[in-house]
Amino acid sequence: MEISYEDFRKVNIHVGTVKAVEKNKRVRKPALALEIDFGSEIGMKKTSAQITDYYNENNLLGKQVIAVCNFPSKNIPGFESEVLVLGAMEKYGKVVLIHPSKIVANGLEII
User: Fold this and answer.
1) Other C-beta atoms within 10 Å of 90: how many?
2) Nearest Cα to 88, choosing from 79, 78, 102, 98?
3) Beta 13-23 vs 64-68: how paired, if at all?
4) What's the pLDDT tens digit per position in 58-81?
5) How far apart are CA 83 and CA 106, in angstroms?
């Protein structure tokens, strides 16, 4: 399905740095609860992501990620997910996160 450039511009995609990570023990499928700093304009946002095949508390802390920041909050059992972290899905559902190739300012918009 094709979308227009105007449709794409409605999606707010930004870079943020993971500031806190913990296992989300309230969900059925393994997931991590993340707190991400998107800079002064957007602020800190939370999300729960099923990315445990390659990521954990140790290798995600301080990592920059890319996320959609203007979806409505989604209630995940015991958790309010505010952004959607983006990744490429490999065979069998394993997710590889998308991130900048060098460190950039938190909140930088993806265009």
Assistant:
1) 11
2) 98
3) antiparallel
4) 999 999 999 999 999 999 877 899
5) 14
